Amino acid sequence: MSSTPKRRVKAKLDPSSSSRSSLHSLGALEPPSSFFPSREELLKLVAVLAIASAVAVSCNFFAGVVNPQTKPFCNSDAESAEFSPSDSCEPCPRHGECHQGELECVRGYRQQGRSCVEDGDINETAKQLSEWVETRLCEEYAQLLCGGAGTAWVLETNILNDLDGQLHMKDFGGDSSLFMYTKIRAMETIVKLLETRANPAGMKEYRCPDSLAEYYKPYSCRIRQWVLEHALLLVPICALLMGFMVFIRRIRKKQYLSHRVEELYHQVCDILEENALSKGDNGESWVVATRLRDHLLLPKERKDPLLWKKVEELVQEDSRVDRYPKLVKGEQKVVWEWQVEGSLTSSRVKKKSQSGKSKSPRERDANSLHHELRSEPRVLLL
To answer: Residues 106, 95: contact at Cβ < 8 Å?
Structure first.
């Protein structure tokens, strides 16, 4: 019996369905959308990294400032191979000595950081010592210039001994090198300040300069020397001033004398006229000139005969007054008498006296008191 073989029928695949299945399988292999960071998360990450970097740089900077890694100093001795000048060491600073990379400042300087600066205490002590020597030498020389007892030149050994005495009062902590260095610094300043010479024995001597000694002279000495230096100019100036003062005084005295003479003259005329009209206390119309003078002049004015002489000259020139000698109480006196006849003021005074008689006794007393006050002599003040 024959058998017929069966053929398998191959199913035809749809290309579209195969492509969909492959895409589905690839989509199953892709990571989820939450696997990658978002934009906001990336910005936060960058900010964190920037802050961390800044903190690291700052810490490194402050660590270098607080604990710097300094280079050792190069040796001052050039023969030493170790720590010779190179990029691995720092040159030795000025006023310092370096050995094995360490710095040591010379005398008079102290270490400040990685440099040497002057020691302020030593400089101040040296300055005080130099000023003390300057004051002592300049005062003695100024006293000598003013005519007193003093010295001009001083030996260097004496100055050094004086400095030793002053330095012993300072506290150097037993450091003899510091003691000597301070003394040397003081002498350096003194040499620059004072004048120096060598005496015949070859020893150094010092003297205060003349320009500096002027400031140490007393004011009385300065004034006296200035007057002597300018005497040729001061003498004529003083003479002119004194002459001018005398001239001004004479002018003022002349003006005072003129005003006082006129005042006394008017008082004399008033007294003579009133006495002539009232016939005086004794019924006489004349007045003794000397008594009138003593009545009008002040005690100090009586010592100046010129004042009353000028008054007499004016009275003598006045035609209303007669001057003639008269025997008064057995003594020859010169009397003055007012001529009532023809006087222009007699009628006015007469009316005034008549009106005074018609007044009450109280009013007459008041008028007489006023008249006495007016008749008192007055001094013209300048």
So the answer is: yes
